[in-house]
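Look at one such:
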Amino acid sequence: MSDVIVAGLLNVLTPEGLLLVAIGLLAGFFVGVLPGFASSNAAAILLPFSIYLAPESALILMATIYAGAAFAGAVPAILINVPGTAGAAATALEGYPMTRQGKAEFAIAIARMASAVGGCLATLAVIGFLQPMSKVALSFGSVEMFIVAVIGLLLIGALVGQQPLKALIAGFLGMLIATMSADPQYAQPRLTFGFIELYDRIPFIPAIIGLFGMTEMLALASRRQTLSAQAVAYVAPADGMLRRGLREVGASFNYLLRRPVLTLKSTVIGFSLGILPGVGVTLANFLSYAEAKRSSPQGANFGNGEPDGIVATEASDNAVTAGTMVPTLTLGVPGSPTAAVMLAALYMHGISVGPQLMTNYTLEAYTVLWALFLANLLIIPIGLLLAGPMALVTRLNPLYLPPVVIPLCLIGAFSVRYSLFDVWLTLIFAALGLLFRRFGFPVVPLILGMVLGPLAETNFVRAMLLGRGDLAYFFRTDAALMLWGVAAVLLGVILVRLFRPAIAGSKS
């Protein structure tokens, strides 16, 4: 196994691998500093064009976009108090006050260093423990995989968003959409409405492009952010800017060295929550922020420009990106929207995802993880060189992007199967995404439902056949009983979240 890990590293260190890492990181920086334009949107737009790349090359590109955007979202959060990504929302709580105090350079340097350290540590943890985790996944039979799918769906209601009922509705709607394909046992068409294109399964790539790329472009057209006066001073051309940046790199590194427990604790929180599908980086970052505030000697200064808060949120932010790779590579369950796009890339290349992925494509998996590690490491030097230009991107009028990106989305949707049906399907999912935004429904549960629905149905049917219709078959192994216990706990959390407002209202 060590030979495969080393071979994966050597794959990344080839000229092509390094070029893809650099391109992905730069693209991640660009999309991360645009408020609301997430890495999943960029990955979805690039998805159809990645068919011309090898599978590992496509995944390297998307994974490094993910890492770059995770850090870059902190730049507008610090400079203009508008998070570039959802994960940077907590960073703004301390970053923007530091900008108002004239400490924008140090705040961005802290965010850059914490992102790199947290991302590298979490990725090394995945590289070290992925094989044992995949062996556990391989031991799962149809019963265990069905329960895993159930747990993934219950996580939607337990942890996603502030309104669990809306999250559950979105998740079950995703499952309903997934059932438009033929019956897995009898191959009878269901809900295809006469369209042969829906017989196999709902085309995942047009759905992803419509829900992420198209929807975001249409929503982005209504936004416009400008730099604050303090931010303008930060990005204004000045002699010795690179020298000052290098000095801030040293200062930020020393700052993290004096806070090893905070950095490690925030990394563990981000990594742990990243493993849970659909939980989201926002929850991980706010939990890290709250824990840092609770335990920091400077806790009383939080909210007034405390660097400890930035360390906590940014170390957690990039650790989440590594954590999401665990369920994605071991179970075929996307840990995040960007991971869902990566799974779509695997589907597009004819690769079956699931527990067998780590057996049949071990080298490709470790290649992607080493690319993620290198991208996090390069955040320090490349982020230093591009800090000023990245800040200037926040001045870009978003109205310029949709006329360019929307045609690319439609062309990309058409180019996968050369089908106008996929173009219309992309537009339908874009409309659905806008409706979700309008009425406050989260999109991530919809995607999870589309992915987990077929997984749950196929394994349920297989388990029923193996058990000859006996439901007791679902409770015969220790692993199944443990997983059912986890499902019961999550169901309890959902019920508490659903009925807590009513109980609180009756008491008042």
About this structure: The first helix runs from residue 2 to 12. Residues 237 and 388 are 9 Å apart (CA to CA). The chain has one domain: 2-507.
